[in-house]
Structure formats: structure tokens, C-alpha cells
From TrEMBL:
Pfam families membership: YceD
Similarity section: Belongs to the DUF177 domain family.
InterPro entries: YceD, YceD_bac
Keyword Magnesium: no
One cellular component term from this protein's GO annotations in UniProt: cytosol
Function: Plays a role in synthesis, processing and/or stability of 23S rRNA.
Listed name of the protein: Large ribosomal RNA subunit accumulation protein YceD
A GO BP entry: ribosome biogenesis
Length: 165
């Protein structure tokens, strides 16, 4: 937790740490297992932007996550290499227009203190692949024919006909 992120940036401070993947609760839906940890570092800076000096944060993080393959539902190791540049904006203040056109920097609104782990979670969630899959794997066969059958297959078995394919 950073009590004053604007001051943190202005003084060009940095903090770093390691968090257990199991503590990043909002990631849990995407993971096959929550083993391991994520190393992170947050650096503050004031960037000259024309006549203004803008408070920026740079968040880097690395680690290996065990994602859940969308096809076979097995574990899929994925290397996290996060490098996010964030422009601090006070809550309620307009985001400078050029900021919206700059893909390399995201603006984040901050009111009061900054929860670093929540920010880390946000940034990891944005970095995750949308539909992670092994290059070669098969969809799991339904165990005992009970789990996740399509309604059509269920209908077919009710009628006593062989299910499709
Ligand atoms: Zn798979």
C-alpha cells in the first residue's frame, strides 16, 4: 500500500516484493493451480512532457503462472513478463487527450492511497492470454458420460440412438 502515489512518483521512489500466486485471488479463475510466486517492482518517476511534469509509475513483474488450458482443462505453464507504464491522474481530473492516443502508457485514476497488489492483479489480468491452449491436446472425454454433455447428445442417448461422432 502506497499512502501517496503522487509523492511516490515525485520522489522517484521504488519498492519491490514477491507475492504468492495464491494471494492473487482474482487470478484464481484463470489458473489450474496457484503454486509459485510473482516478483514485482514498482518505480515512480516524473516525466517531462512539454511544459508539464507528469507523475508516472512503472510496474514490472515476472513469474510463471499455471493457466488452465481452455481445451483440455489441464495446466498450461505461462511466463509472466509484465512491464506497464502508468500515468497517475487524480480522481475526477480529465485524462489528457494525448494520453488516450498513446498506447504505451495507460492512465490510472487514483484517489488517496494506492493498493499495489490490487494494481498488480489488474495488470496481470489484462496481460493474460484470452483463450490459453496447449499447441497439441485433446478435449477431455466425458467421464462416465455424465459431465458436460451437449443437450443433443443427451437427447440422443434418451432415444437409445448412438450419440453423434
Ligand atoms: Zn490442453
Amino acid at each position: 500500500m502506497i499512502s501517496d502515489p503522487f509523492r511516490f512518483a515525485a520522489e522517484e521512489r521504488s519498492i519491490q516484493g514477491e507475492v504468492a500466486v495464491a494471494d492473487l485471488l482474482r487470478l484464481s479463475d484463470a489458473l489450474a493451480s496457484s503454486e509459485g510466486g510473482v516478483l514485482w517492482k514498482l518505480e515512480g518517476a516524473l516525466i517531462e512532457e512539454g511544459a508539464r511534469r507528469e507523475p508516472r509509475l512503472r510496474l514490472t513483474a515476472s513469474g510463471q503462472l499455471d493457466l488452465c488450458c481452455q481445451r483440455c482443462l489441464g495446466g498450461l505453464p505461462w511466463v509472466l513478463g509484465l512491464d506497464s507504464r502508468l500515468h497517475l491522474v487524480r480522481a475526477g481530473q480529465p485524462i489528457p487527450e494525448e494520453e488516450l492516443e498513446n498506447d504505451e502508457v495507460d492512465a490510472i485514476e487514483v484517489e488517496g492511497e494506492l493498493d499495489v497488489l490490487a494494481l498488480l492483479e489488474d495488470e496481470i489480468l489484462l496481460a493474460l492470454p484470452v483463450a490459453p491452449r496447449h499447441e497439441n491436446c485433446d478435449a477431455p472425454r466425458p467421464v462416465g458420460g455424465a459431465s458436460k454433455e451437449s443437450p443433443f447428445a443427451a437427447l440422443a442417448s434418451l432415444r437409445g440412438s448412438p450419440s453423434a461422432k
